[in-house]
Amino acid sequence: MMTTTNLRPLADQAAKQAYAPYSRLHVGAALRSRNGSTYSGCNVENGSLSLGSCAERSAISAAVLAEGPEFRLDAIAISAFDRNGQPMQVPPCGACRQVLKEFGADAIVGFLGGDGSWTEVGVESLLPHGFVLPEDL
């Protein structure tokens, strides 16, 4: 089984680049595509809060830019730190769960769990009833 532990340092580094002047919650994500390439992203906030972007979707956008629409997700690690630099449990939001499922329904997602240990779960367990387009569209 592929794990996310080797992606975690990349996610930590990406979190340091976050633009989070409003929440002061710095989130980074690092992913591995099925072809073995790695991509990172961080959250970017905006004064109009709904215009911000999550780290996971930023990393996926970078992967799609590099690999094109054929990009498929193998694994992603998510790191989050509060305003004092302390690690936090921040699993993917609902929108990110849907995006993760679209690019890798069988991908592995790693993040800090509620007990403080690194947790790895499958995308399907995060979003068991995600939206899918009918095959005939």
Order of neighbouring strands in the sheet with most strands: 2-1-3-4-5
pLDDT below 50 for ≥5 consecutive residues: which ranges?
none
Q: Architecture, CATH level 2?
A: 3-Layer(aba) Sandwich
Overall, the morphology is globular
> So how many helices?
4
Describe the structure.
This protein is of the alpha+beta class. It has a single domain, classed as Cytidine Deaminase, domain 2 (3-Layer(aba) Sandwich), CATH 3.40.140.10. The protein has helices at 8-16, 55-67, 94-104, 123-126, and strands at 26-33, 38-42, 73-81, 108-112, 118-122. The protein starts with 7 loop residues before the first helix and ends in an 11-residue tail after the last helix. The mean pLDDT is 94.
Descriptive terms for the model:
137 residues, alpha+beta, Cytidine Deaminase, domain 2, five-stranded mixed sheet, 4 helices
In short:
This protein has 137 residues and is an alpha+beta fold. The chain contains 4 helices and 5 strands; from the N terminus they run H-E-E-H-E-H-E-E-H.
Secondary-structure blueprint:
Blueprint: H1 8-16, E1 26-33, E2 38-42, H2 55-67, E3 73-81, H3 94-104, E4 108-112, E5 118-122, H4 123-126
